[in-house]
Amino acid sequence: MNKLFLAALISGALALPTYAADYTIMAPAAPGGGWDQTARSMQEALQAEGISGNVQVTNVPGAGGTIGLAQFVNQSTGNPNALIVGGYVMVGAVLTNASPVSLANVTPIARLTGESDVIVVPAASELQTVDDLTAKLKADPGSVSWAGGSAGGVDHIAAGLFAKTVGVDPTLVNYIAFSGGGEALAAVLGGQVTVGISGLGEFDAQIKSGDLRALATTGSARLEGSDIPTLGEAGVDLVVENWRMVAAAPGITDEQKTAITADVEKLVTSATWKQTLETKGWQDMYLSGADFDTQLAADIDATSAILKDIGLVQ
Amino acid sequence: MDTFGLLADGLLAALQVHNLLYALIGVTLGTAVGVLPGIGPALTVALLLPVTYRLDATGSLIMFAGIYYGGMYGGSTTSILLNTPGESASIVTALEGNKMARKGRGGPALATAAIGSFIAGLIATIALAFLAPWVVKAALAFGPADYFALMVLAFVTVSAAFGDSALRGITALFIGLGLGVIGIDLQTGQARLAFGIPDLLDGIEVTTLAVALFAIGETLSIASSRSQIKEEVLAVKGSVWMTLEDWKRSWPAWLRGTVIGFPIGAMPAGGAEIGTFFSYAAEKRLSKHPEEFGHGAIEGVAGPEAANNASAAGTLVPLLTLGLPTSATAAIMLAGFQQFGLQPGPLLFANNAPLVWSLVASLLIANFMLLVLNLPLIGLWVKLLTIPKHWLYAGILTFATLGTLGANGALSGRLGPIPFSFELLILLAFGLLGYGLRRFGYPIAPVVIGLILGPLAEQQLRRALAISQGDPLVLVHSPIAITLYVIAAIALLLPIFLRMRGKGEVLGQLAANED
Q1: Where are the domains of chain A?
Q2: Most exposed among A63, A111, A173, B384, judged by the fewest C-beta atoms under 10 Å?
Q3: Residue B140: which of A67, A71, A190 has the nearest Cβ?
Q4: Interchain pair A186, B332: CB under 8 A
């Protein structure tokens, strides 16, 4: 069909010779989102660097990636050419949706990129610092409305953890979910809510133009050249980073896993990938092997705990 | 440099031969894909993005613009000819457009859609260039309570699409509202009415429902009534072109559609469909031939088509000035801009002025190219209707199924040895529903409208109440909301008042006649 025709057109336009491994990368989200962009950037870099000759990206949107994940597990078991992009949001979505499959059902390969959340207020807001926000939240938790992405997502988790860390009952957080950071941005700019909490990329341009004031990022360290403090520097002991990862199919052999890990390592060290990180403003959070497995398990435990605290998961 | 100088420079860049070629490729691909139900402009741009990495910034922006506008236009062609909306913003077009096509007036319907799209695109693109910073300020003033008021107004005015019986219309609307509740609730993350089926977690896809109700339902109803009703579909009656009367009735509708569509497209939570609903309602209220609505009124095609294209340009206002993508296609275009280190947002017009103006210029070129490409094709398109009915409907069924599979119907599981797609099951189930609704004389459009408006209204109401911590007065707190409620009240009460007065006059005449 048309899709095939377009795919043929694209491969024709790229006019690449053939290489050993062909990959199919599933982006468990609609075209345009972070996972889709990650998958398409991988496609671009894998082909440009000659790591793989033919890379296809498929989109299976829905339910925080859990629909794509379920389909991936169903259809790709044992297939060494199938990859899926995922991330922190998926960890939460698996729990809130009581998804029958989880990240334990696939073969995690590596964490690739990450992005901190940032807490912003409109330029005209009376809140100047994290301390002001903490004081307002302690005085009347309901009076602070937080705009961010969907309920149970990384923004919601960060808001809940913030309240918990400063000693406020996380169930009292007045979190307003918007579909995507874009709508949340509009709500903050329009002064409809008290604070906005979302990925730095969503708010970056408005912070630079002075329409929004950044109180703090949720990252572990300051971004290079940035004057926005981390929560840690502002006196709140909390780190939340929204990472994205790549996983392979369940049921592959150890040799196959090693080969895929090697290809991904070649990908993340390539010049094309470095360039992509720079233009997209993604942080390099590459972590693979046993270290990644340990980190993933820890993230799943922490997320599960906070979702229970917020009351989204029983 | 002043705005005009920058725009002229942009136009000069866009008019180079190779850039015109990119525009042509973009428009052709966009139209081709827009014609297929289900495969929207978003997927096309996503697939073509890697190709444009090899082009220079201007060239690839021009191609994007072509695909974007082409996709918007392609959807209306199938709506009119085959009663199969290619995307959700052309659902309203099917209401009158297809009726016109059946009366042999498919040519004028397509022409008014094409010219209306062109004029709306032209005006809206110019408005984008000159008014964007102000429009976006006004759009940001809309809070959740104001959006809710806008949805109330939409609910009141969509009764124009209800057909002859208000009761049947409201019944159909409530089916749609019910379907809108299915899926994960955004505010709490909990699943509603999903019955443990993962494919239902994201709710019912609007395009799947529309294609099912319109195309599949129609096919079933044709197949079942073959022996009873001998409804002749006339391919061409009279001229393929618009008559003077058509022009007279179309141009005010084009302008009204543009004025309605552009600001709604510019609202971060507006959406192209809503502008088309408002436009249709306005045309029906203002028309000198309201009796033709539901039977092929040309204003009912001209207005919504203009509104559709104007809101496509409107979408670019928040995208360029805030870096805020309000549609899937816009989100991908944002990714495309970033490839060239171009960061849409408040500083874009200051930092990347030449590129912005070549984008605006390329939108104008793409728009013009679309008209040049499509007007001569109208004669060819209407020939589709001369295809014998059984072939035509077999084709519609095939395209509807393939489109749904291609868009979001990837195989979701297996029943024994047979792979099956849940989305196709939904398509068939709603096809049967569409057949049932037709069979018992219920209108189709309100079901789709309910599915689109219901979740929007619910989310905005709940956001408004959550921000105010439960105080319902927040709903009438802003002047915008109050104004919208007043308009809604007028729209609701004025026809009743006029009818009463009309009756009074009739009674008065009767009384006078008694003398």
Answers
A1: 2-114+242-310, 115-217
A2: B384
A3: A190
A4: no
Pick among 3.30.9.100, 3.20.20.100, 3.40.190.10, 3.90.320.10: CATH of A115-217: 3.40.190.10
**pLDDT above 50 (res B219):** yes
Do A2-114+242-310 and A115-217 have matching folds? yes
> What is the C-alpha radius of gyration for chain A, rounded to an integer number of angstroms?
20
Give SS3 for A193.
Answer: coil
- Chain A residues whose CB is inside 8 A of the B184 CB are 63, 97, 150
Whether B50 sits inside 8 A of A40 (CB atoms) is yes
Chain A residue whose CA is closest to B335:
A32
Architecture of the domain delimited by A2-114+242-310? 3-Layer(aba) Sandwich (3.40)
In this predicted structure, the answer to whether residue B238 has a pLDDT above a threshold of 70 is no
β-pair partners for B422: none
Distance from A15 to chain B by nearest Cα, in Å?
11
pTM: 0.79
**B163 vs chain A: nearest CA distance in angstroms?**
33
Of B45, B140, B188, the CB nearest to A189: B140
Inter-chain CB pairs, A–B, below 8 Å:
181
Q: Tell me, what amino acid is at B151?
A: M
Whether B410 and A71 lie within 8 Å, measured CB to CB: yes
As separate numbers, helices (DSSP H) first and strands (DSSP E) second, chain B gives: 21, 4
**What phi-psi label fits residue B193: left (phi over 0), alpha (psi between -120 and 50 degrees) or beta?**
left
Yes or no, beta carbons of B325 and A142 under 8 Å apart: no
A167-186 average pLDDT score: 83
What's the pLDDT at A197?
A: 93
ipTM of this complex: 0.77
What pLDDT is attached to residue B248? 86
Of B53, B54, B143, the CB nearest to A190: B143
Give the number of other CB atoms < 10 A from CB of residue B424: 17
In terms of average pLDDT, the best of A35-44, A164-173, B55-64, B222-231 is A164-173
Nearest to B187 among A44, A177, A204 (CB): A177
- Per the prediction, chain B carries an average pLDDT of 79
- The minimum CA-CA distance between A13 and chain B, rounded to whole Å, is 7
Cα distances (angstroms) measured from residue B200 to each of B172, B175, B180, B440: 21, 17, 11, 28
What is the rounded average pLDDT of the residues B74-90?
77
Q: Which chain A residues are closer than 8 Å to B334 by Cβ?
A: 32
Taken in order B335, B400, A84, A299, is the CA torsion positive or negative?
positive
Helix (H) or strand (E) holding B11: helix B3-14
Picking from B391, B384, B133, the residue whose alpha carbon sits closest to that of residue B266 is B133
